[in-house]
Amino acid sequence: MGVTKTDIFTNQQNKLAMQLKAIAHPARIAILQQIIKANACICGDLVDELGLAQATISQHLKELKNAGLIQGSIEGVSICYCIEPVAWKNLQNEINNMFASYKDVNTCC
Amino acid sequence: MGVTKTDIFTNQQNKLAMQLKAIAHPARIAILQQIIKANACICGDLVDELGLAQATISQHLKELKNAGLIQGSIEGVSICYCIEPVAWKNLQNEINNMFASYKDVNTCC
DNA sequence: AACATCTATCGTAATATTACGATGGATTAA
DNA sequence: TTAATCCATCGTAATATTACGATAGATGTT
Protein backbone atom coordinates (compact mmCIF):
# COMPACT_ATOMS: atom_id res chain seq x y z
CA MET A 1 0.00 0.00 0.00
CA GLY A 2 0.95 3.63 -0.19
CA VAL A 3 1.71 3.58 -3.91
CA THR A 4 -0.59 4.87 -6.63
CA LYS A 5 -2.14 2.11 -8.74
CA THR A 6 -1.24 3.44 -12.16
CA ASP A 7 -1.90 0.13 -13.92
CA ILE A 8 -5.67 0.43 -13.67
CA PHE A 9 -5.76 3.81 -15.39
CA THR A 10 -5.12 4.91 -18.95
CA ASN A 11 -1.82 6.36 -20.09
CA GLN A 12 -3.57 9.64 -20.69
CA GLN A 13 -4.92 9.76 -17.15
CA ASN A 14 -1.55 8.85 -15.67
CA LYS A 15 0.36 11.38 -17.73
CA LEU A 16 -2.08 14.17 -17.03
CA ALA A 17 -1.96 13.38 -13.31
CA MET A 18 1.83 13.31 -13.38
CA GLN A 19 2.10 16.71 -15.05
CA LEU A 20 -0.60 18.27 -12.91
CA LYS A 21 1.20 17.02 -9.83
CA ALA A 22 4.33 18.78 -11.03
CA ILE A 23 2.43 22.07 -11.11
CA ALA A 24 0.44 21.43 -7.96
CA HIS A 25 2.75 23.12 -5.52
CA PRO A 26 2.85 26.84 -4.69
CA ALA A 27 6.64 27.01 -5.07
CA ARG A 28 6.51 25.41 -8.49
CA ILE A 29 3.63 27.66 -9.54
CA ALA A 30 5.71 30.63 -8.44
CA ILE A 31 8.70 29.29 -10.33
CA LEU A 32 6.69 28.82 -13.52
CA GLN A 33 5.17 32.28 -13.21
CA GLN A 34 8.59 33.80 -12.74
CA ILE A 35 10.01 31.93 -15.71
CA ILE A 36 7.11 33.02 -17.88
CA LYS A 37 7.26 36.61 -16.67
CA ALA A 38 11.00 36.96 -17.16
CA ASN A 39 10.85 35.06 -20.44
CA ALA A 40 14.61 35.38 -20.63
CA CYS A 41 14.87 32.33 -18.41
CA ILE A 42 16.07 32.83 -14.87
CA CYS A 43 18.10 30.43 -12.72
CA GLY A 44 19.63 31.31 -9.35
CA ASP A 45 17.47 34.40 -9.21
CA LEU A 46 14.64 32.11 -8.20
CA VAL A 47 16.37 31.48 -4.91
CA ASP A 48 16.28 35.21 -4.21
CA GLU A 49 12.77 35.74 -5.56
CA LEU A 50 11.15 32.97 -3.52
CA GLY A 51 12.19 32.48 0.08
CA LEU A 52 13.44 28.94 -0.22
CA ALA A 53 16.85 27.35 0.11
CA GLN A 54 18.93 26.71 -2.97
CA ALA A 55 18.66 22.95 -2.56
CA THR A 56 14.89 23.22 -2.37
CA ILE A 57 14.60 25.33 -5.50
CA SER A 58 16.89 22.98 -7.35
CA GLN A 59 14.73 20.06 -6.29
CA HIS A 60 11.57 21.79 -7.53
CA LEU A 61 13.24 22.63 -10.84
CA LYS A 62 14.18 19.00 -11.22
CA GLU A 63 10.57 17.92 -10.81
CA LEU A 64 9.37 20.41 -13.38
CA LYS A 65 12.09 19.20 -15.70
CA ASN A 66 11.22 15.54 -15.10
CA ALA A 67 7.62 16.34 -15.99
CA GLY A 68 8.93 17.82 -19.21
CA LEU A 69 7.47 21.26 -18.53
CA ILE A 70 10.72 23.20 -18.47
CA GLN A 71 14.15 22.86 -19.99
CA GLY A 72 17.51 24.11 -18.83
CA SER A 73 20.67 25.08 -20.64
CA ILE A 74 24.09 26.04 -19.40
CA GLU A 75 24.69 29.76 -19.57
CA GLY A 76 28.19 30.45 -18.40
CA VAL A 77 28.46 29.61 -14.74
CA SER A 78 24.73 29.53 -14.20
CA ILE A 79 21.84 27.64 -15.75
CA CYS A 80 19.00 29.12 -17.71
CA TYR A 81 15.54 27.60 -17.46
CA CYS A 82 12.58 28.18 -19.68
CA ILE A 83 9.25 26.68 -20.62
CA GLU A 84 9.28 23.62 -22.86
CA PRO A 85 6.80 24.91 -25.46
CA VAL A 86 5.52 21.61 -26.85
CA ALA A 87 4.77 19.93 -23.52
CA TRP A 88 3.33 23.18 -22.21
CA LYS A 89 0.84 23.45 -25.06
CA ASN A 90 -0.01 19.78 -24.95
CA LEU A 91 -0.81 20.04 -21.28
CA GLN A 92 -2.85 23.15 -21.91
CA ASN A 93 -4.87 21.24 -24.47
CA GLU A 94 -5.38 18.23 -22.22
CA ILE A 95 -6.61 20.42 -19.40
CA ASN A 96 -8.81 22.43 -21.74
CA ASN A 97 -10.42 19.26 -23.01
CA MET A 98 -11.10 18.07 -19.51
CA PHE A 99 -12.70 21.31 -18.42
CA ALA A 100 -14.55 21.81 -21.67
CA SER A 101 -16.14 18.38 -21.46
CA TYR A 102 -18.24 19.66 -18.59
CA LYS A 103 -21.52 21.11 -19.80
CA ASP A 104 -23.26 23.12 -17.14
CA VAL A 105 -26.71 21.61 -17.54
CA ASN A 106 -27.00 21.43 -13.76
CA THR A 107 -29.82 18.92 -13.69
CA CYS A 108 -28.52 17.09 -10.67
CA CYS A 109 -27.77 17.31 -6.98
CA MET B 1 10.63 20.17 7.65
CA GLY B 2 8.39 18.19 5.39
CA VAL B 3 5.60 20.74 5.34
CA THR B 4 4.90 23.13 2.48
CA LYS B 5 5.73 26.75 3.30
CA THR B 6 2.46 28.34 2.29
CA ASP B 7 3.17 31.58 4.13
CA ILE B 8 5.71 32.80 1.61
CA PHE B 9 3.32 32.48 -1.32
CA THR B 10 0.21 34.40 -2.32
CA ASN B 11 -3.29 33.19 -1.57
CA GLN B 12 -3.85 32.75 -5.26
CA GLN B 13 -0.79 30.56 -5.63
CA ASN B 14 -1.73 28.47 -2.61
CA LYS B 15 -5.34 28.02 -3.68
CA LEU B 16 -4.42 27.11 -7.23
CA ALA B 17 -1.86 24.60 -5.95
CA MET B 18 -4.41 23.12 -3.55
CA GLN B 19 -7.03 22.61 -6.26
CA LEU B 20 -4.52 21.32 -8.79
CA LYS B 21 -3.30 18.83 -6.23
CA ALA B 22 -6.85 17.61 -5.81
CA ILE B 23 -6.98 16.83 -9.53
CA ALA B 24 -3.43 15.56 -9.78
CA HIS B 25 -4.15 11.88 -9.24
CA PRO B 26 -5.24 9.38 -11.90
CA ALA B 27 -8.05 8.03 -9.73
CA ARG B 28 -9.44 11.49 -9.14
CA ILE B 29 -9.11 12.36 -12.81
CA ALA B 30 -11.04 9.21 -13.63
CA ILE B 31 -13.66 10.09 -11.03
CA LEU B 32 -14.11 13.58 -12.43
CA GLN B 33 -14.31 12.26 -15.98
CA GLN B 34 -16.94 9.74 -14.95
CA ILE B 35 -18.97 12.34 -13.08
CA ILE B 36 -18.84 14.67 -16.08
CA LYS B 37 -19.67 11.92 -18.53
CA ALA B 38 -22.61 10.57 -16.54
CA ASN B 39 -23.76 14.09 -15.68
CA ALA B 40 -26.52 12.55 -13.60
CA CYS B 41 -24.07 12.25 -10.77
CA ILE B 42 -22.88 8.79 -9.83
CA CYS B 43 -21.81 7.47 -6.43
CA GLY B 44 -21.12 3.82 -5.60
CA ASP B 45 -20.89 3.11 -9.31
CA LEU B 46 -17.43 4.60 -9.15
CA VAL B 47 -16.29 1.68 -7.06
CA ASP B 48 -17.33 -0.65 -9.87
CA GLU B 49 -16.04 1.57 -12.67
CA LEU B 50 -12.57 2.03 -11.22
CA GLY B 51 -10.77 -0.90 -9.66
CA LEU B 52 -10.36 0.57 -6.20
CA ALA B 53 -11.78 -0.32 -2.81
CA GLN B 54 -14.81 1.50 -1.52
CA ALA B 55 -12.83 3.15 1.26
CA THR B 56 -10.32 4.42 -1.26
CA ILE B 57 -12.95 5.91 -3.56
CA SER B 58 -14.65 7.54 -0.62
CA GLN B 59 -11.36 9.07 0.44
CA HIS B 60 -10.72 10.45 -3.05
CA LEU B 61 -14.23 11.89 -3.19
CA LYS B 62 -13.62 13.59 0.12
CA GLU B 63 -10.52 15.27 -1.24
CA LEU B 64 -12.33 16.52 -4.32
CA LYS B 65 -15.09 17.79 -2.05
CA ASN B 66 -12.62 19.49 0.29
CA ALA B 67 -11.11 21.24 -2.70
CA GLY B 68 -14.62 22.45 -3.52
CA LEU B 69 -14.61 20.83 -6.95
CA ILE B 70 -17.55 18.49 -6.42
CA GLN B 71 -20.64 18.44 -4.26
CA GLY B 72 -22.69 15.55 -2.94
CA SER B 73 -26.31 15.18 -2.02
CA ILE B 74 -28.20 12.34 -0.42
CA GLU B 75 -30.22 10.38 -2.93
CA GLY B 76 -32.09 7.69 -1.05
CA VAL B 77 -29.66 5.20 0.35
CA SER B 78 -26.80 6.36 -1.82
CA ILE B 79 -25.07 9.67 -2.43
CA CYS B 80 -25.03 11.61 -5.66
CA TYR B 81 -21.95 13.57 -6.63
CA CYS B 82 -21.60 16.20 -9.28
CA ILE B 83 -19.33 19.03 -10.33
CA GLU B 84 -19.51 22.26 -8.33
CA PRO B 85 -19.98 24.62 -11.28
CA VAL B 86 -18.65 27.83 -9.76
CA ALA B 87 -15.40 26.42 -8.42
CA TRP B 88 -14.97 24.40 -11.58
CA LYS B 89 -15.17 27.48 -13.80
CA ASN B 90 -13.02 29.55 -11.50
CA LEU B 91 -10.32 26.94 -11.61
CA GLN B 92 -10.64 26.71 -15.37
CA ASN B 93 -10.07 30.46 -15.57
CA GLU B 94 -7.12 30.43 -13.22
CA ILE B 95 -5.45 27.69 -15.21
CA ASN B 96 -6.26 29.40 -18.50
CA ASN B 97 -4.67 32.61 -17.27
CA MET B 98 -1.56 30.79 -16.22
CA PHE B 99 -1.14 29.01 -19.54
CA ALA B 100 -2.16 32.01 -21.58
CA SER B 101 0.45 34.20 -19.89
CA TYR B 102 3.10 32.24 -21.73
CA LYS B 103 3.93 33.78 -25.07
CA ASP B 104 5.91 31.49 -27.28
CA VAL B 105 8.58 33.95 -28.30
CA ASN B 106 11.23 31.26 -27.73
CA THR B 107 14.14 33.60 -27.55
CA CYS B 108 15.95 31.65 -24.89
CA CYS B 109 17.63 28.41 -24.00
C1' DA C 1 -38.24 -4.10 14.68
C1' DA C 2 -34.95 -6.55 11.86
C1' DC C 3 -32.36 -6.63 7.87
C1' DA C 4 -29.99 -5.03 3.75
C1' DT C 5 -27.54 -1.47 1.29
C1' DC C 6 -24.62 2.34 0.78
C1' DT C 7 -21.07 5.35 2.33
C1' DA C 8 -18.03 7.76 5.75
C1' DT C 9 -14.57 7.20 9.03
C1' DC C 10 -10.94 4.92 11.81
C1' DG C 11 -6.70 2.65 12.07
C1' DT C 12 -2.68 1.29 9.83
C1' DA C 13 1.20 0.05 6.68
C1' DA C 14 3.86 1.39 2.75
C1' DT C 15 5.50 4.97 0.22
C1' DA C 16 6.07 9.84 -1.41
C1' DT C 17 6.86 14.68 -0.62
C1' DT C 18 9.00 18.73 1.31
C1' DA C 19 12.70 21.29 3.03
C1' DC C 20 17.43 22.08 4.18
C1' DG C 21 22.46 21.59 5.43
C1' DA C 22 26.48 19.80 3.57
C1' DT C 23 29.17 18.40 -0.14
C1' DG C 24 31.00 18.01 -4.75
C1' DG C 25 31.38 19.04 -9.77
C1' DA C 26 31.57 22.46 -13.39
C1' DT C 27 32.64 26.95 -15.13
C1' DT C 28 34.61 31.62 -14.87
C1' DA C 29 37.83 35.09 -12.86
C1' DA C 30 42.18 36.44 -10.92
C1' DT D 1 46.76 27.18 -10.46
C1' DT D 2 43.79 29.13 -7.04
C1' DA D 3 39.73 31.10 -5.72
C1' DA D 4 35.00 32.19 -6.44
C1' DT D 5 30.38 31.27 -8.09
C1' DC D 6 26.61 28.48 -9.30
C1' DC D 7 24.06 24.48 -9.19
C1' DA D 8 22.97 19.35 -8.58
C1' DT D 9 22.95 15.71 -5.50
C1' DC D 10 23.23 13.18 -1.06
C1' DG D 11 21.49 12.37 3.35
C1' DT D 12 17.99 13.10 6.53
C1' DA D 13 13.98 14.55 9.41
C1' DA D 14 9.22 15.81 9.41
C1' DT D 15 5.08 15.30 7.30
C1' DA D 16 1.68 13.93 3.66
C1' DT D 17 -0.37 10.62 0.58
C1' DT D 18 -2.26 6.28 -0.89
C1' DA D 19 -4.71 2.16 -0.29
C1' DC D 20 -7.47 -1.07 2.23
C1' DG D 21 -9.85 -3.85 5.92
C1' DA D 22 -12.94 -3.19 9.52
C1' DT D 23 -16.48 -0.80 11.53
C1' DA D 24 -20.19 2.39 12.30
C1' DG D 25 -23.99 5.53 10.84
C1' DA D 26 -27.78 6.53 7.82
C1' DT D 27 -31.47 5.28 4.80
C1' DG D 28 -34.69 2.10 2.72
C1' DT D 29 -37.10 -2.51 2.71
C1' DT D 30 -39.63 -6.33 4.69
Automatic annotation (TrEMBL), chains A, B:
Domain of life the protein comes from: Bacteria
This protein's record includes keyword Transcription: yes
Keyword set, alphabetical order: DNA-binding, Transcription, Transcription regulation
Gene3D superfamilies in the cross-refs: Winged helix-like DNA-binding domain superfamily/Winged helix DNA-binding domain
Pfam family, one: HTH_5
Domain HTH arsR-type: start-end pairs: 8-103
Keyword Transcription part of the UniProt annotation: yes
Name of the protein in its database record: Winged helix-turn-helix transcriptional regulator
Taxon lineage: Bacteria, Pseudomonadati, Bacteroidota, Sphingobacteriia, Sphingobacteriales
